[in-house]
Amino acid sequence: MNYFLSFSFMTCKSFLHPRVSITAQENENGKSYSTKVARNPKMERLRYNYLFPEISARELQHVTEYPNAKVISLGIGDTTEPLPDVVASSMANYAHSLSTLKGYRGYGAEQGSKELRKAISETFYKDMGIKDTEVFVSDGAQCDISRLQLLFGSNMSIAVQDPIFPAYIDSSVIIGQAGDVENESGTYQNVEYMKCEPQNSFFPDLSKAASTDIMFFCSPNNPSGHAATYEQLEELVQFAQKNGSIIVYDSAYAVYITEDRPRSIYEIPGAKKVAIEVSSFSKIAGFTGVRLGWTVVPEELLYANGFPVINDFNRIVCTCFNGASRIAQAGGLASLSSDGFKAVLSLVDYYKENAEILLETFQSLGLRAYGGINAPYLWVHFPGSNSWDVFNEILEKTHIITVPGSGFGPAGKEFIRVTAFGHRENILEASKRLRNLFS
C-alpha cells in the first residue's frame, strides 16, 4: 500500500477538509461539469502530499482511534514553550497602540522596519560586513524559499542535500526546475541529489557532484542535525566559486550550535559573492505561530551579466509581499534586545536539554542517533528498515509521533527524525516509552 495515498483526507497544518474528488462534479441537470482550465502540469509532478501535513493527518487519525491515549508529538518541529514576557508584552503593547490615533500605522516597508533590519545585522552578522540594507524581513524562511524560486525561475539547475527539508524540492517542482519523478528511487529528474550520510560525515563529496546553478544547503541540517565545519563550508564556497553557482544557505537553527562551527555562511571568506542566507525567528524565539524571518542578499552577489541579485529580489519582495506584520516585527525587535535575547536563548537551552535526554535514551538502547548537539533534531538509524514501518510501529506501540526519514529524501529511508521541541514532562515520558519498546 502507498502510505501517502491511503488516507481519505488531507491537511494543511491544523486545517482539515475532505479530499476533493478528481472526477468531474455533476451539475443540476445531472451532467458532469468542469472548467476549461487545465491543471498546472508542474503541480501534477508533485508525488505526494506535503510531508508535515501528512504527519498531522496521521496524528489526527491515531487520536481518533485511540481517544484515551496520551499522544506525544516528537514529529513536526513546533515549539511548545511560552514566549518570554518581554517579547509577548512588546507585541501586545504594539497591538494596543494601533487602537490610538498616535500609534496607528498602516503599510510598512516591504523590506521590514529599519530598526529590525539593523538589529538582525548587528546580532547575527557582526563583523561579517553584512549591511542592514542587505537584510529583508519576511513572514518566515519557508515563504522566502518560494520567493527565491520565483526570483531564479524555471530554467535553473539545482542541487540539494540528501536528506533535506522537503520544501526545497517541492518548490523546485512547482516552479518547473525539476522534471518527472523516478518511481523506483522517488527522486526527481533534473535535480542533483548530494548524499549526506554518516559515512561521509553528512557532507557531500563535491568532487563527484555535478555543477548546478543553485545549491540549497542547510546547516545545521534539517533533518540530520549536522552542523557543517569551517573546512566543509570553505569547500562549499570554493565549489560554488569554481562553478559560478549561487548557494541558498538555510541557517534557521544556527543558535542551537554548541560546538565550534560556523553560524553563518558569511563567516567564510568569499561567501558574499556566492551566497544568499535564509533564517527565521521560529526556532530562535518560538515564533512558529507568530511568523517572522529574514533573508540576506549581499550587494556583492551578481548575475552573469553583472546585475546585482539584490535588486531583483527587492523587486520580487515589493511585488509579492506587503511586508511582515508590524506586530510580529515588534516582537522580533524585542527578542533581539538585551533582555529579550537572553530570554529567548534560555528557551533554546531548554530545548537543547530535551535533545540531550533523547540522545542519551537512544544511545542507551544501542541505536545509532545523530544530531541533538548542534540542532534540536535527532536522526535515528534503523538499519535495513523502512522508515514508514518504523514510524507506524512507534506510533502504534508507544503513541509517539515521529517523522519517517524517507520524507526527507532517499538517503532517509532507514531513519526517523525526532524533535526535541516539547514540554519536559512529555520528553521524559517519551523517553520512558521508547526504552520500554526497544530495550
TrEMBL record:
SUPFAM superfamilies attached to this UniProt entry: PLP-dependent transferases
Name listed for the protein in its UniProt record? Aminotransferase class I/classII large domain-containing protein
Which top-level group of life is the source organism from? Eukaryota
Which PANTHER family would you find in this protein's record?
A: AMINOTRANSFERASE
- Keywords of this entry: Aminotransferase, Pyridoxal phosphate, Transferase
> What are the TM regions of this chain, as residue ranges?
none
- Cite the InterPro entries for this sequence: Aminotransferase_I/II_large (IPR004839), DapL/ALD1 (IPR019942), PyrdxlP-dep_Trfase (IPR015424), PyrdxlP-dep_Trfase_major (IPR015421), PyrdxlP-dep_Trfase_small (IPR015422)
Q: Member of which family?
A: Belongs to the class-I pyridoxal-phosphate-dependent aminotransferase family. LL-diaminopimelate aminotransferase subfamily.
Protein source organism: Penstemon smallii
GO molecular function terms attached to this record: transaminase activity
Which cofactors must be present for this protein to function? pyridoxal 5'-phosphate
What NCBIfam families has UniProt attached to this entry? DAPAT_plant
Per the record, the GO terms for biological process are: systemic acquired resistance, salicylic acid mediated signaling pathway
| Residues of the Aminotransferase class I/classII large domain | 70-433
One of its Pfam families is Aminotran_1_2
